[in-house]
Design a protein that fits this description.
The strands form nine sheets. Strands 7, 16, 17, 18, 19, 22 and 23 form a seven-stranded antiparallel sheet that branches. About 10% of the residues have low confidence. The protein is an alpha+beta fold. The chain contains 13 helices and 24 strands. Helix 8 links the parallel strand 14 and strand 15. Its cofactor is FAD.
Length: about 525
């Protein structure tokens, strides 16, 4: 996603030549990608890398699929189309953790540059992307919003309920997904200084050998001389004249660094990888939004033909509406659970089981938890069947609510499994290593059911399908959540932007520590997750 966006902007300078190495295929002009609500059809090898986690100790040793976009545009070509800014505190936390300039005021300045109002009910992106609100909103979404606002009005002001615009081309003959390939690459392919090579899987970065360095050169800072990649059966190299920028995403950027000898020596040495730069933080501090599904029979119909005929209907939708709220607004014993969890974390830190760097992150998260105005939990409505668990029945209409965990305390890792760049890395999110993460999701399921019992949302629902009336106790809910848990595709942290002594991989200018010309520009640099979608 970030790679093509960045390449388009860098190539605005005619004196700079940009080469993009894309491991996937082009997948241009593919209706499975361009029709908004068809994202559930993208789970095959043409569009998806189909990553799988390691067995999860706290999830009955289950493994979970981590889909990621395969092709030009990355996961922006396989996303749910939600445009959401993070909160002020979420962004300011990055600066608090040691990154000067990474604060809300700077973020907002650049965020506004990428947006402009097209008309009263439509917003668009100032550069190449047009964004518009769906009109009208689905009936289920409207009633869900009304029920949520009625239930929580007056506790701490109104419940934060937002309804996102969808990323669509305002000039297109029909509403379409405008991913980074369509928005940033295709309009600029006429540039002679912008080159794109699909099917090119980067193997590793090759550094100058000491004999190649001048005597005055700082040997503690290494420079990439070549980038090695495979295309088909051939192994090729390209020699950069400026920076090498990794935009492989949270799941793959740490793999490239590991294979290049940048990482934790204890991880690299057993696999026969010579450690060039010792950075223990590579592949660590992984944080992921996760969710499960509550869904029911709905009373409203759908019609795919409406997309091309009138640019209407639910097939023009991605996610329809969101509810974000503090834990205290949905859980009767929230204060008790939060106090207990914070005490456990403090004890772990005092016993030396939590590093100072992680403790600083947890202090921010605990501060957010204890605030009754900072959001912790999310419910997302979709006017269709969105499930990989129970088989939907033909002729039935469905309404789905995604219950999501936005601020996980569990931290995972991503590391190479071998020296083979084609082999999937070991992806271990450590789901529910902190049981508090599970407790939040259980309370989220209870809340979804409460909203479904109240008007006017109740009038949209025929009956609950999953988890069904047989699931009532907390233990039963936990098993249901483990059984149906999914990634929200918002993984961050594996190349964290932090001080080097605190497990950082890149500095605040996104340069990899110990290198002269390597930067990482993707979500892997985010040191602490946000309670919003990462686009």
């Amino acid at each position: 996603t970030a790679g093509l966006t960045l390449a388009a902007h860098l190539s605005e300078d005619p004196n700079v030549t940009v080469l993009v190495l894309e491991a996937g295929n082009a997948n241009l002009d593919d209706p499975a990608i361009l029709v908004p609500a068809q994202y559930l059809r993208l789970a095959d090898e043409r569009y998806d890398w189909k990553f799988v986690t390691t067995e999860q100790r706290y999830c009955n040793n289950r493994q979970y699929v981590w889909p990621r976009g395969k092709g030009l545009g990355g996961s922006s070509a396989a996303n749910f189309m939600a445009y959401i800014r993070p909160s002020v505190g979420d962004v300011d936390a990055w600066e608090e953790l040691g990154n000067p300039g990474w604060n809300w005021n700077h973020y907002l300045k650049y965020s506004k540059r990428s947006e402009k109002w097209v008309c009263v009910k439509k917003i668009g992106c100032h550069f190449l992307t047009h964004v518009r609100f769906t009109d009208p909103s689905p009936e289920q979404t409207i009633k869900y919003r009304q029920t949520s606002e009625e239930r929580f009005h007056g506790r701490n002001g109104e419940l934060e309920v937002c309804f996102p615009p969808l990323i669509m081309d305002g000039e297109a003959p029909y509403q379409m997904v405008l991913h980074s390939s369509v928005a940033f690459l295709e309009p600029n392919l006429v540039r002679n200084n912008l080159l794109v090579l699909p099917g090119a899987n980067v193997s590793r970065l090759l550094f100058q050998e000491p004999d190649d360095l001048s005597a005055s050169k700082d040997l503690s800072v290494l420079k990439v001389e070549e980038v090695e990649f495979s295309r088909g059966e051939a192994t090729l190299t390209v020699r950069p004249t400026r920076d090498v920028i990794l935009c492989a995403g949270t799941l793959k950027s740490p793999q490239v660094l590991d294979l290049s000898g940048i990482g934790n020596p204890s991880v690299l040495a057993p696999l026969g990888v010579d450690c060039k730069i010792a950075l223990d933080g590579v592949g660590e501090n992984v944080q992921e939004h996760i969710y499960f599904l509550w869904w029911a029979y709905s009373m409203f119909a759908r019609d795919l033909s409406l997309v091309s005929e009138s640019q209407q209907g639910i097939h023009t939708l991605g996610l329809a509406g969101f509810t974000f709220t503090p834990m205290q607004q949905v859980c009767p014993n929230a204060d008790e659970l939060i106090t207990s969890h914070c005490a456990k974390l403090k004890s772990l830190y005092q016993d030396g089981k939590i590093s100072l760097a992680l403790w600083e992150q947890y202090q921010i998260q605990m501060r957010v938890l204890q605030s009754e105005t900072s959001v912790d939990m999310e419910w997302t409505t979709i006017p269709q069947c969105h499930t990989f668990r129970t088989q939907p029945e033909d002729g039935k209409q469905y309404m789905t609510v995604l219950v999501a965990l936005n601020r996980p305390f569990s931290r995972g890792s991503i590391h190479i499994a071998s020296r083979d760049p084609v082999e999937q890395p070991l992806m271990d999110p450590h789901y529910f290593e902190h049981d508090f993460d599970m407790q939040l999701l259980v309370e989220g399921l209870k809340f979804a059911r409460k909203v479904a019992e109240e008007e006017p949302f109740r009038s949209c629902i025929v009956r609950e399908v999953d988890p069904g009336p047989a699931v009532q106790t907390d233990k039963e809910m936990r098993e249901y959540i483990i059984d149906g848990l999914m990634t929200a595709f918002h993984t961050v942290g594996s190349c964290s932007m932090l001080p080097r002594e605190k497990g950082g991989v890149v500095d605040s200018r996104l340069k990899v520590y110990g290198t002269e010309n390597v930067r990482v520009v993707d979500l892997s640099i985010v040191p602490l997750h946000i309670a919003a979608h990462t686009q």
